[in-house]
Amino acid sequence: xVSKEVIKDIIKSNEDFINNTVGDILPRHxxxxxxxxxxxxIVYGPRRSGKTFLLYGLFKRNxxxxxxxxxxxxxxxxxxxxxxxxxxxxxFELKPQLLHxxxxxxxxxxxxxxxxxxxxxxxxxxxxxxxxxxxxxxxGREWSLALYPFSFKEFLSVKQTELENSLYGKDKILVNKHLxxxxxxxxxxxxxxxxxxxxxxxxxxxxMSAMFFKDLVEQFNLKNxxxxxxxxxxxxxxxxxxxxxxxxxxxxKDKFPFSKTSLFHYYKAFLTxxxxxxxxxxxxxxxxxxxxxxxxxxxxxxxxxxxxxYDWGRALENVVFLELKRRxxxxxxxxxxxxxxxxxxxxxxxLSAIQVAWEVTDENRQREYGGxxxxxxxxxxxxxxxxxxxxxxxxxxxGITITCVPFAKxxx
Length: 412
Known about the structure:
The chain has helices at about 5-20, 50-60, 85-95, 115-125, 150-160, 170-185, 190-195, 195-220, 225-235, 245-250, 260-270, 285-290, 310-325, 365-380, 405-410, and strands spanning about 40-45, 65-70, 105-110, 130-135, 145, 240, 275-280, 295-300, 330-335, 340-345, 350-355, 385-390, 395, 400-405. α4 (about 115-125) links the parallel β3 (about 105-110) and β4 (about 130-135). By secondary structure, the chain is an alpha/beta fold.
């Protein structure tokens, strides 16, 4: 049992910490909350993507009438569902002037570990009129918003570089330098703020360890550590390529014991935890989609396993995928005689084709242009886009207008 005195101490200490210790917080470009929505607003995403600091930012903007509670605070260990109302009571006992206010904001971090919390949350919103934001592993409930590590535009903001004003001249060199770092170390906020490569690498190792044990082993009760490690190594080195669970099974079934059922369960854990995403073949046939292997992408390139020399083209494809994901598209890949990396569908149902290449050269032109032209003709579209590191040109191939655009310009 947790007493009101302890809860009040937590409320006051959190208020003091956020107001006096937490510094300026970078606004997240992809985060917008609908005004006057009478629903619990949930922010979900991978560990260390900035969910807690998003709540801190909301607190700072509403500091006279806001409450922040982290349910991983050890002082709240053992708190039960029937005790949660003590939090509301303690807040209003500390701030009685807000008892009839319509502007009270509650911010709950990691509340998902308390069974049945949803009913309490809905009552706060629907009957008490409290504006409630929740962060954690809560995908698919209430009104929800995915928060990913920094986009490249957000990454540049941390580096005090405005993308729109840095696409030409000397500033372009600086942008490409930052892009190289982004493709190598990703966009986890703390990693982005680190001052040197040693610190970045150390942080990423710590993240990987925490994600492995907390987000996979503990959350999904995975006990076959050899299978989990082997699957992780294969997924985290295969980003931007097709991954077949059946092929993995055939390759490793005689090397250590595991069942095909457990393999599918472990693979699903990577998807559910948002460490890995997949795109499926574009096809009107659901059967054909299931029969063809998905392409896999990482939530952040800092997690990439570099078993050989780094493939910058695949890294660029991964960040394009993440940007498309942030923009809310349905994402597929296309393959026939050639392949097109992305066929994207807008909420309106409109489809378009995007290819990604580090550089279009005489050696790869047929492959890159061919896949895009095939996809555009399938979609009956007159034009398609190739996103590259640095090329900015337009030409017509096979009746299709091909526009090559630098990644930084495409992001702006």
